[in-house]
């Protein structure tokens, strides 16, 4: 089919495919002109630091999408990661506030996070719930459990390690940024440079093909949910560092930004599929837009509208581009 | 699993679970709540459960229609909010009568459906992404309009409008009658009419439905608008009962509405979303909420428990269907 497409049409298709990227670039330029202080190393660092939890949950989300496939309802999606993040943050905060020791707090939070991941895996891979439904229901349940653990209160955390994550720098770069970068590289290595990672992606590409060559797509999807829960757990530390404690209600915005950034990231990949770096880039762009509009003095209430419109623009262009190819 | 060694017994238990699993759990919950607090089984409390489920049922009906088309609607709460907002503003700012206000509310809610229809049919965005986008835009619009999310109250609303939530016919609350009527209409349209069969056909096999000449786009447009208008009716009931518009109130129903539809679908022999199943799902959730309330638990504990019960119920319902 593709041989018969005239070159002009192909150019148009590519333009449509890159439209979301162009829109984002245009917005950033607009913000740069309107708020001249925005384009500086200082703001760049701020954007990076503020985006760390979103970057982490996006890494988790893209692992699940890669293992389960692109279909938003029946493929791989894990909406419960932000809930896992706030649960981990809540348990850490509660335990640290009670002077219970850092290691024990970590173990408890990790255990809870992995329990969420294992439940997701069981619901999807074993019982056969669609991932969207399972992870959405889990989101509600886990947020409920977190509100029970923290009694819906804000808990301040001033543990040295959390403060270190927030404030320390190595060679002028914030420690948090370095940690997340290292984690991202490790995740990239696992997904793209190991046999396990390629097997995992095979299931996401086509369950039938993967099973035909003897891979268990179901098992890999289950592991992907566990890995996603692990990223949720790690993101919990950065939620604590960013907010100097755990506050109720963080999960909603985190979920919005995760979905927006992950699927926005697909627009940056040559094949228009969800990728790790795409999701990370998406998360950073969403962070930049948020901070940019805030520094322009745009009313906070408008931010939801702008982000919602962005999601729709991106996915509409993605749908257009797909139709053009079909 | 001590039965594992004796297959006939295992098969028998499996057979019972496959046929009655969800029903048994349902009965188990009722027995447990009744044992905990005898008030649970009293007639007035049963009426409370039904009355408390009316708004959720209406929302879940809209969701059933969309899920039957093969989609999902994350913006049902926004349609509910818009229904309440348009009606309250019509009465407060424009001195509208109750009929005009109710029509304004339904029209306002339908705007949400029109937006979804444009996105899903016109731009071919997947229903999940389209309605999540509508959700965020709709939430933001409410924040902007109310300057941050403060409620708009209207104490002196026309009696007719107040009746929507407070009135009754022969002791049966009007909101229950409205919900039951809508459920009946949905049942007839979705399960008995040609249009309903077409909806199910395209929900099961979209390409086959297109080949068979079913006007898929037209059905989708109608479905999204009708679903949103239905949810707006739930908004009217909410606005009438508390005499105000509370921004973003609809969001709290979203998860329950989805859960009710999918519990209902899992109870269906072929796993299809269906009106009777949705009613059963809503009643199950209503019983759990009411029972937990009567146990006198603290709010956060109750919230966590109902979330966990919901996950378990979904898992059980789906497992039961898979084993068939």
Task: Name its key features.
heterodimer, A: 326 residues, mainly alpha, ABC transporter involved in vitamin B12 uptake, BtuC, two-stranded antiparallel ribbon, 4 strands, 77% helix, 2% strand, globular, B: 324 residues
Number of strands of chain A: 4
Q: Pairing-aware structural class of the strands and helices of chain A?
A: mainly alpha
Text of the CATH class of chain B: Mainly Alpha
Annotation field: number of helices of chain B: 13
Rg result of chain A = 20 Å
* SSE series of chain B: HHHHHEHEEHHHHEHHH
Major β-sheet annotation of chain A: 2 strands, antiparallel
Please provide a written account of the structure.
The complex is a heterodimer of chains A (326) and B (324). Chain A has one domain: Orthogonal Bundle (ABC transporter involved in vitamin B12 uptake, BtuC), CATH 1.10.3470. Chain A is mainly alpha-helical. In chain A, α2 runs antiparallel to α10 (217-243), α3 (81-97) packs parallel to α5 (131-150) and α8 (195-205) crosses α10. Chain A has helices at 7-34, 41-68, 81-97, 102-127, 131-150, 160-167, 175-192, 195-205, 207-212, 217-243, 250-266, 276-295, 300-325, and strands spanning 155-156, 169-170, 173-174, 245-246. In chain A, the strands form 2 sheets. A two-stranded antiparallel ribbon of chain A has the order 1-4. In chain A, strands 2-3 form a two-stranded antiparallel ribbon. Chain A is globular. In chain A, a hairpin with a 2-residue loop joins β2 and β3. Chain B has a single domain (37-323), classed as ABC transporter involved in vitamin B12 uptake, BtuC. Chain B contains 13 helices and 4 strands. By secondary structure, chain B is mainly α. The model of chain B has no long low-confidence stretch (mean pLDDT 89). Chain B has helices at 7-36, 43-68, 76-94, 98-122, 127-145, 159-166, 174-192, 194-204, 206-211, 216-242, 251-267, 275-294, 299-323; strands at residues 152-153, 168-169, 172-173, 244-245. In chain B, α4 (98-122) crosses α5, α11 (251-267) packs across α12 (275-294) and α11 packs parallel to α13 (299-323). At the A-B interface, α4, α5, α11 and α13 of A face α5, α11 and α13 of B.
């Amino acid at each position: 089919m593709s041989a018969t497409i005239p070159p002009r049409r192909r150019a148009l298709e590519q333009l449509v495919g890159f439209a979301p990227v162009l829109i984002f670039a245009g917005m950033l330029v607009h913000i740069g002109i309107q708020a001249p202080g925005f384009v500086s190393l200082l703001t760049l660092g701020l954007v990076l630091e503020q985006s760390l939890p979103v970057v982490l949950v996006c890494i988790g989300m893209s692992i699940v999408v890669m293992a389960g496939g692109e279909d938003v309802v029946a493929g791989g999606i894990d909406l419960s990661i932000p809930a896992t993040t706030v649960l981990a943050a809540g348990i850490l905060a509660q335990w640290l506030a009670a002077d219970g020791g850092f290691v024990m707090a970590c173990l408890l939070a990790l255990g809870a996070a992995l329990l969420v991941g294992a439940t997701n895996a069981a619901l999807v891979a074993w019982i056969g719930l669609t991932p969207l439904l399972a992870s959405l229901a889990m989101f509600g349940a886990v947020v409920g459990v977190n509100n029970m653990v923290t009694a819906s209160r804000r808990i301040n955390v001033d543990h040295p390690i959390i403060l270190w994550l927030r404030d320390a720098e190595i060679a002028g770069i914030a420690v948090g940024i370095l940690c997340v970068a290292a984690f991202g590289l490790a995740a990239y290595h696992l997904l793209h440079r190991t046999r396990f990672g390629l097997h995992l992606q095979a299931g996401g590409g086509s369950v039938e093909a993967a099973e035909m060559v003897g891979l268990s797509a179901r098992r890999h999807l289950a592991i992907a949910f566990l890995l996603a829960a692990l990223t949720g757990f790690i993101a919990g530390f950065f939620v604590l560092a960013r907010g100097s404690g755990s506050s109720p209600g963080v999960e909603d915005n985190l979920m919005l930004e995760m979905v927006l950034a992950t699927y926005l990231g697909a627009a940056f990949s040559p094949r228009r599929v969800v990728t790790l770096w795409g999701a990370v880039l998406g998360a950073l762009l969403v962070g930049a837009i948020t901070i940019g509009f805030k520094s322009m003095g745009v009313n906070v209430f408008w931010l939801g509208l702008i982000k919602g419109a962005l999601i729709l623009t991106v996915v509409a262009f993605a749908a257009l581009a797909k139709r053009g190819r079909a | 699993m001590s039965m594992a060694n004796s297959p006939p017994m295992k098969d028998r238990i499996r057979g019972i679970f496959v046929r009655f699993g969800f029903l048994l759990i349902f009965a188990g919950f009722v027995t447990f709540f009744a044992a905990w607090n005898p008030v649970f089984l009293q007639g007035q409390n049963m009426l409370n459960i039904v009355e408390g489920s009316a708004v959720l049922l209406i929302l879940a009906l809209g969701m059933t229609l969309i899920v039957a088309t093969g989609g999902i609607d994350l913006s049902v709460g926004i349609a509910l909010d818009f229904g309440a907002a348009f009606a309250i503003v019509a009465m407060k700012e424009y001195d509208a009568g109750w009929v005009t206000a109710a029509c304004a509310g339904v029209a306002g809610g339908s705007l949400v459906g029109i937006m979804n229809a444009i996105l899903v049919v016109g731009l071919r965005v997947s229903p999940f992404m389209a309605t999540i986008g509508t959700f965020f835009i709709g939430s933001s619009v409410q924040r902007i309009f109310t300057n941050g999310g403060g409620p708009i109250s209207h104490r002196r609303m026309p009696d007719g409008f107040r009746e929507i939530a407070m009135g009754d016919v022969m002791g049966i609350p009007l909101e229950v009658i409205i919900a039951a009527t809508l459920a009946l209409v949905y049942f007839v349209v979705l399960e008995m009419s040609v249009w309903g069969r077409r909806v199910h056909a395209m929900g099961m096999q979209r390409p086959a439905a297109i080949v068979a000449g079913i006007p898929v786009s037209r059905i989708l447009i109608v479905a999204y608008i009708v679903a949103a208008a239905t949810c707006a009716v739930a908004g009217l009931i909410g606005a009438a009962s508390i005499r105000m518009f509370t921004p973003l109130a609809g969001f709290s129903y979203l998860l329950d509405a989805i859960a009710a539809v999918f519990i209902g679908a899992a109870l269906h022999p072929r796993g299809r979303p269906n009106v009777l199943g949705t009613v059963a799902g809503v009643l199950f959730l209503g019983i759990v909420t009411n029972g937990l309330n009567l146990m006198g638990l603290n709010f956060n504990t109750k919230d966590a428990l109902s979330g966990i019960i919901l996950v378990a119920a979904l898992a059980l319902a789906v497992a039961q269907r898979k084993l068939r």
